[in-house]
Each structure stands twice: as structure tokens, then as C-alpha cells.
Design goal:
This protein is of the alpha+beta class. About 20% of the residues lie in helices and about 40% in strands. A five-stranded antiparallel sheet has the order 2-3-1-4-5, covered by helices on one side.
Length: about 100
């Protein structure tokens, strides 16, 4: 299962992704695609994000069973804490490190 979360991206990009993944909520895509398709979709999303932000969660062989990829400046970012990925949420007054 692959999850892709997009923020502030062009509508056309979201429309294209619906050909490969389901969009149960605006900007949130889920699906079961091969690793090759997943990687190609990620390249496409990063190329056409136009200043937006993208976060992808996909299966991986690690302790948690998944990996997180980020492109741009999303409101929530993954942080590695001793090998475990956690999500840091920035408040309006916080600055990204």
C-alpha cells in the first residue's frame, strides 16, 4: 500500500494521479502499485509540484515496515529518532530546522 499526500499542487497533477491511485480525500492518494510505478509517480509528482509539498509513505524492509519520502516544505515532516520515523508538526510560530 502506498500513500501520497499532496499540499498546494496543481489540480492537473492531482487529476493525473487518479489514473493510478484512489483519492479518498482532497490531496490524499492511496493504492497498491509496483515499486517501479511508485518510483516513477514520485519523480513525476516532484517535477510537477510547482512549489507545493509532497509526502509519500510506502512499504520498506525496516523495523516499522514503511518508509517516508518528502518533497518541498510540508506542514508535517518525518524525523528519524533512533531508527524510528516520527512526524513533527510545526505550529504557526515554529520554524523548520
Amino acid at each position: 500500500m502506498t500513500i501520497l499526500i499532496l499540499e498546494r499542487v496543481p489540480t492537473a497533477l492531482r487529476g493525473y494521479l487518479t489514473g493510478w491511485l484512489l483519492e479518498p480525500r482532497a490531496g490524499v492518494f492511496v493504492g497498491n502499485v509496483s515499486a517501479l510505478v511508485r518510483d516513477e509517480l514520485w519523480k513525476l509528482v516532484c517535477k510537477h509540484a510547482n512549489g507545493g509539498a509532497c509526502l509519500m509513505i510506502h512499504p520498506a524492509r525496516n523495523e516499522q515496515g514503511f518508509a517516508v519520502r518528502v518533497w518541498g516544505s510540508p506542514k508535517r515532516v518525518p524525523v528519524d529518532m533512533e531508527g524510528i520515523t516520527l512526524i513533527k508538526v510545526f505550529k504557526n510560530s515554529d520554524t523548520k530546522e
